[in-house]
C-alpha cells in the first residue's frame, strides 16, 4: 500500500487529518542529542532524539504517573 496522500500517526496508525501538524511540546539538548516531545493531532505523544523515534505514547495513556493527593476533583 502506498502512503501517498495520507499521513498516518506512527503510534496509533490512525489517518491524520489533512493539514494536521505535530505540536512541539518540549525540546531540550542532552548528551545524547536533542530530545523532542511532540503531540499528534490524534492525541498521541512521541519522543524523538535527533529526529529518530525513541518512544511513543498512545492517546489516552500517559497519566498513570500523575501525582495524586494534592488536587481534588480529578476526572
Ligand atoms: Zn495517534
From TrEMBL:
Record's protein name: Uncharacterized protein
Protein species of origin: Streptomyces rubradiris (Streptomyces achromogenes subsp. rubradiris)
Organism phylogeny: Bacteria, Bacillati, Actinomycetota, Actinomycetes, Kitasatosporales
